[in-house]
Amino acid sequence: MTSRLSLIAGLALTSFASAAPSFGTPGSLSTAQRPGGVASADFNGDGLADLAVTADTIDRIDIFFGTGGGAFGAPTPVFTGANSGPDALVAADVNGDGQPDLVVVLKNQNSVRAYENSGGVFTAGSSAPTGLRPVSLKAADMDNDGDVDFAVANRDGNSFSIISNTAGAFSSAEFAAGIEPRDAAPIDIDADGQFEVAVSNNDDRTITVHASGTYAIQQTIAVNAITRPEGLAVADLDGDGDSDLAAALSDDVASFAGLYFNGGTMLGGALNIPTNGANSGGIVAADFDLDGDMDLVTLNQDSNSISVLDNAAGAFQPGVPTGVGVRPEWMVAADLDNNGSPDLAVTNRDSNDTWTFLSNADNGGGGGDQPCNGADLAAPFGVLDLADIQAFIVEFTGGCP
User: Fold this and answer.
1) pLDDT category, 2, cuts 50, 70, 90?
2) Which of 53-67, 128-142, 365-379 has the lowest mean pLDDT?
3) S-S: 275 plus which of 250, 307, 324, 394, CB 3.0-4.6 Å?
């Protein structure tokens, strides 16, 4: 049995090493005109993933309640006020009641507002000012008080804002950044439990890292001469247990995912992986193929596509583009079909729709097609059942390495 386990383990490792993220035929949801931000959570507590999508005509957040299997019902609107310009969106429990709320950037009002959730019904909560033209929103407990806070990049203010949350009440502070920042991402580089903030400065062609607490610049990373930084994603990209940074880098000539690996106190220089898309703006990280490595997806506005960059044990492959709607605006990685694997939702500004991509990987909830043959230890082979668990327990208790 031991030799059989070793053989199967070797085959399983080979299988995982060659696996790549893949998605089924995309679904499409009609949205209000010019959809923007997108977020996902179980808003009504029925155990199914829901979607929330902003639109600026008429200014609103549309809630699409899940019906199972990655399908969604008709939208329920939450209006944000005339000329408020709702855009970037995050789902998070703002007031600590155990229900996911929504926090939205109101770009025309230079502010951030919470919409508190009660069983899927949303009402306006606290708000706080930002700098000029806020364009992004990311969540983290910045002050370690147990409440989720937010970082916002202010494109016209050449700044970023920290939105502090105390039991659902917001306050804000603004800090200088580079020229035309497009994203601000909390990242704990030195693993001290305090978040630094990485900011992508588009016109500077730099990423600045701001020290936790004071938010003074502690590192400036030059991107390169032909691309500019856009969206940011924080994840353990090389599997060493700390947080790394990925940036969407683009211009007229080429687009890349720039990878900045954590050196313990600072981020290392970039490894640029081609996205094979035009004008890569957004970027998300998730283990889309369930092989234990964080993969990347970029959103390519000028080629109307997303690009999947497979991570094989820290070695990223060039992007594989897949078409979406017209001018994709935002995306979110979330388990939309409740099968344990991350999926994608992409809003398309100029085709007024949101596309959903369900991962072909399956972590036990059904609906995927990636096998787990490395765990098939006992007859009947080709079926994972109790006999396989019993075979594993026998070898484990016997000390099989």
Assistant:
1) very low
2) 365-379
3) 307
Q: Both tokens of residue 114? A: 């919470």
Q: Is the peptide bond before 380 cis (omega within 30 degrees of 0)?
A: yes
Residue 158 CB neighbours (<10 A): 18
Q: Which pLDDT does position 236 carry in this prediction?
A: 97
- What SS3 state is found at 89? strand
Under 8 Å between Cβ of 307 and 320: yes
- SS3 of 219-283: the string is EEEECCCCCEEEEEEEECCCCCCCCEEEEEEECCCCEEEEEEEECCCCEEEEEEEECCCCCEEEE
Phi, psi for residue 32 in degrees, rounded to 5: -65, 170
* Chain segment 199-242, per-residue pLDDT in tens: 999 999 999 999 999 999 999 999 988 899 999 999 999 999 99
As a 3-state breakdown, the chain gives helix, strand, coil percent values, each rounded to 5, of: 10, 50, 45
The dihedral region occupied by 391, where left means phi > 0, alpha psi between -120 and 50, and beta the remainder, is alpha
Cis peptide before 217, with omega less than 30 degrees from 0?
Answer: no
Q: What is the pLDDT of residue 391?
A: 72
Determine the pLDDT at residue 18.
46
Q: Are 103 and 136 in contact (CB under 8 A)?
A: no
With beta carbons less than 8 A apart as the criterion, state whether 31 and 75 touch: yes
Alpha carbons 3 and 5: distance in angstroms, whole number: 5
- Residue 156 makes CB contacts below 8 A (sequence gap 6+) with 131, 132, 133, 180
DSSP 34-80: EEEEEEEE-SSSSSS-EEEEEEEETEEEEEEEEEETTEEEEEEEEE-
> Three-state DSSP class for 176?
strand
* Beta carbons of 207 and 245 less than 8 angstroms apart: yes
Q: Tell me the chain's radius of gyration from C-alpha atoms.
A: 22
Backbone angles phi, psi at 396, to 5 degrees: -65, -50
Element (H, E) at 5: helix 2-18
Phi and psi for 205 in degrees, rounded to 5?
55, 45
